[in-house]
Amino acid sequence: MTTFSDLTGAVTKDIQTTLTAQEAFNWLVEGHDRFKSESPRERSRADMLDGAAGGQFPYAAVLGCIDSRAPIEQIFDAQIGDLFVARVAGNVVNPDVLGSLEYACKYAGTKVILILGHTSCGAVGAAWGGVEDGNITGLLAKIKPAVDTVQAKVGSDATPDNLNACVAENVHVACNALRAQSDILAGLEKDGTIVIAGGVYNVAKGEVEFLTKP
Ligand SMILES: [Zn+2]
To answer: Among 19, 62, 98, 201, which is least packed, fewest CB within 10 Å?
Structure first.
């Protein structure tokens, strides 16, 4: 088994192929530990570009929010060729995101999908408050199921705790949407080819809380 610290350049096809879904998830966790301890793994830029020229073999795909305070690659100390990253406000699942993740896992060999919400999410806050405006309305409708679930338990006060509970619920909703709306992803998860996990990044602490782990 190749460990992340063995890498000198980009992830190769051989490495991606031999990596289990659990090991790929561990690489995300280890990368985040390096981010937290401010000890990034240095790799040769030239070697990574050499690898990139020959193809891409990312170990994980992350669906995150567009929020400027939650930069996916930095959070996981990832570089060229490491991650597929999809970003959309509120890290919601839509048909184009599903197609992107299906491609990442079925055709490009990625072993992990992580849905990453974050604290102080403006999209979740807007959905909580029932904002309607332009195309934002349709986006927020995808967060509404999480809002309804959490408000049924705690009421509609927009406290930080309630909003963060909604952020976490929205991650669970997105994980389940992958399974419910994609036969490809559900099948790959069922046969152990991939894992689907969720987490919440705390923008004040710079730390991810993994909600579900393989
Ligand atoms: Zn957000």
So the answer is: 98
**Rounded Cα distance, 154 and 145, in Å:** 15
By residue range, what is the domain housing residue 93? 4-212
For residue 131, CA distances in Å to 26, 157, 174, 179 come to 38, 15, 20, 28
76: CATH = 3.40.1050.10
Total domains in the fold of the chain: 1
Tell me how far the alpha carbon of residue 164 lies from the centroid of ligand 1, in angstroms: 11
CA–CA dist 38, 197 (Å, integer): 24
Q: How far apart are CA 77 and CA 4, in angstroms?
A: 11
The predicted pLDDT at position 3 comes to 81
Other beta carbons within 10 Å of 152: 9
Structure token digits, residue 63: 């669906």
What separation in Å is there between the alpha carbon of 212 and the centre of ligand 1?
Answer: 19
